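Write out this protein's structure.
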Amino acid sequence: MQKLKAFALTISLLTLASTAVGAPQKSWTADNGNGTYSNPLFYEEFEDPDAIRVGDDYYLAGTTMHMNPALMVLHSKDLVNWEFASYCMNRLDFGPAFRLEGGNVYGNGIWAPCIRYHDGTFYIFSNVNRVGTEVFRSKSASGPWERNQLPGMHDLSILFDDDGKIYAISGAGRPSIVELNQDLTQVIPNTRRAMVAKGIGEGHHLYKIKGKYFDVSALPGGHTDQVVARADSIDGPWQVEHMVHSESLGVPSQNGVRIRGRGADQTFTITHADPNSGGGLTLHQGGIVDTPSGQWWSIIMQDHGSIGRMVALVPITWDENFPIIGLPGNLRKAPNTWIKPDTAFTQPPEPLFVHSDNFDSAKLKPVWQWNHVPDDAKWSLTEKPGSLRLHSLPAADFFTARNSLTQRPPGPESIETVQLDATGLMPGDTAGLALLNLPYAWIGVVRTADQITLQSFDQTTHKTTTAAANPAHLWLRVACNFDTEKATFSWSTDGQEFVPLGDSFTMAFQLRTFQGVRVALFNYNSSGKPGGFADFDNFLVDEPRASGVERTIPLGKTIILTSGADGSVLVADSQNLQVVNRSAGEPGTDAASDQFKVVDLGVGRVALKSSDGRFISASTSGVVLKELGRATPGEAELFQWVNLMRGDTMLMSLTNHRYLTTQPDSPGSLTVSATGPQPDRKGGACFKWRVIK
């Protein structure tokens, strides 16, 4: 077997200068500020990622479905911190349904982009349902973008081959390959051929690397994997290998929704995943990219329940000339925390977007998107400077209302608050703050001919709740917890004291919209004609866990570690020089033998020192206690501190890139054998910690 090409574990990694850690982050960033990163890259939806490198710069394109502007492009210098570059289309307008006129395109639109760079030009190819494949081109990733159209191609990918030919692969299960003409305006006749590759999937990413052809694709289904096919010729024969297998990063299956009927007759049933089923939401569908230093990485998608699909950055190891996700000794699995890519570029941690907005700018921030093509005559940032004014248009309900302005709520928790001036509403108007999806929910002001009331509405139950309030000028709030999948709506007359309205709303993900929930500002008129206007101001997004326990390493602290599987306590057995776990509730809790000091060794790596001065050490015979004297902890004593969401921690041994683990419900010796976290966190490799001193 070809020797695995490892990420070098050199002493230089341990002496890397970490980014200075200042005030706690107020917004989620993947960059931990210590030379490591933690997934997801963005704790908000970003679907169907495709990435390229151009020199020392990286570019990422992702699906936007029915939203406007359409097709987002991002830029990065380090693959971890990203910034907005452009949208390819300001208006995704291919007919009345795209404008919510006599129909809608929820769950359709533009999706699965392929981004490429060739001869000084950026290209993005992306399919639009029932329209065709759009080809965008620009000299800059910041645009402007020109566009032409090709026949529709499902989940396509493009390869500019070194002999001048241009190939497009598309389709699921039995994909086909065609050639395109040089100006990318036509499929060359009689060039279609089947790609015969048993086990290939969809969501293609086609490359040529060192003379060989590679196609990365995702297996269709609910809990999927990603595969990679390799051939010496574009015509095959193709050999297929699993690229990643059953990697959930500890993300459990979460709420789904079953929808029956349409329109006003729709009914919804929230389905709750069994946390003990062992099933999880796996990594699938993403591209690969290299760094100038020779490293390879994948940016890959993963479902995350109601927040939608997010992306992870995971290292690639080349094994037998195949790019395999994972690290040597633990292939086809992915660490949730790892050393940042070697791009020769450093910067402070920065969030992708600033979500809050006081609407003082002359144009909308790129974090905002309209639910369909907007009517630009019916919204304004200048009619009342410093506010967003939405004029109502006729609609039967919130879901069919035009000019709903949306953005992706960040996780794992976020609180969105907006100030509403409803004095401009006319009879028939409903204006407020919503969670857009199926089912949807909102809190807002309803104006009739007789009165103006404050209401909340839950589409799941079709329940309306009314408050006894004077709602002409107030603050509306929604608090989203994407661990529990629950949201609560509340209101205030002074922006300080908030009162809940209605029951908690269960957020869910489904494949009618192919998106997670979105926060929306809206105003529509149910009387069948246009109405008045609503003014929104001071949209504030608070992320209470942006720097929570999920981002914390208790460096220099003495802690007690307990297993998330059974509550057992890790103990230093000094007599037998082993590390064992003792059943929860046994005598001796909080004894000195339970306590370990977390020794900082840089870049998120630690050694665990027992109260008698020995270190936890991984060996071929198991996990032992080792006396080092004045020696520095070596590879066997080093553990990468890996934080998962919901406060769970894992300790990755640098000897084999596997994790410190107990045998659940069976006290005894520890091993470094776990390949990753189970979605229910009951496999023995997930721990909770608390500081003693």
